[in-house]
């Protein structure tokens, strides 16, 4: 699967890489996704926004996913974007463990 009918990809990161731990004191932490059989039955105003961003259906539990979420207002503190790509992060190659390509991903995209 991997998004868009097997035309997507997955990037596996090394969660132990220092890149993901450089700012634990300033809300820059990698957290595991929680898996549940039902969606939260509260509206977003009643939920802790962090819980909302880190929950997913338990049919995806095999992914063992982690997420890194940080407020866009904090971007300047992290110095991880240029002005044309606000919120986009340049992740060092050393932090990438593997890339899994969807079965129908084009060779042009892979290159």
Explain what this protein looks like in three dimensions.
- With 111 residues, the chain is of the alpha+beta class.
- The chain has one domain.
- It has three helices and six strands.
- The protein has helices spanning 49-53, 75-78, 107-110; strands spanning 9-13, 30-32, 34-36, 55-57, 66-68, 96-101.
- The longest helix has 5 residues, at 49-53.
- It is globular and about 45 Å long.
- The two termini are 20 Å apart.
- The mean pLDDT is 77.
Protein structure class? alpha+beta
Shape: globular
The end-to-end span amounts to 20 Å
Helical percent range?
10-25%
Number of domains: 1
Largest sheet: 2 strands, antiparallel
Can you count the helices? Answer: 3
User: Stretches where pLDDT falls below 50 for ≥5 residues?
Assistant: none
Mean pLDDT: 77
| Assembly level | single chain
Give a short overview:
The protein is α+β, with helices and mostly antiparallel strands and 111 residues long. The protein has helices at residues 49-53, 75-78, 107-110, and strands at residues 9-13, 30-32, 34-36, 55-57, 66-68, 96-101. It has one domain.
């Amino acid at each position: 699967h991997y998004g868009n009918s097997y035309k997507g990809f997955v990037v596996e990161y090394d969660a132990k890489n220092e890149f993901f731990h450089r700012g634990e004191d300033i809300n820059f932490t990698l957290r595991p996704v929680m898996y549940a059989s039902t969606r939260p039955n509260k509206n977003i105003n009643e939920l802790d926004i962090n819980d909302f961003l880190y929950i997913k259906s338990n049919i995806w539990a095999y992914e063992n996913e982690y997420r890194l979420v940080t407020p866009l207002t904090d971007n300047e503190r992290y110095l991880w974007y240029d002005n044309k790509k606000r919120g986009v992060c340049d992740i060092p190659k050393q932090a990438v463990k593997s890339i899994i390509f969807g079965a129908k991903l084009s060779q042009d995209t892979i290159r």
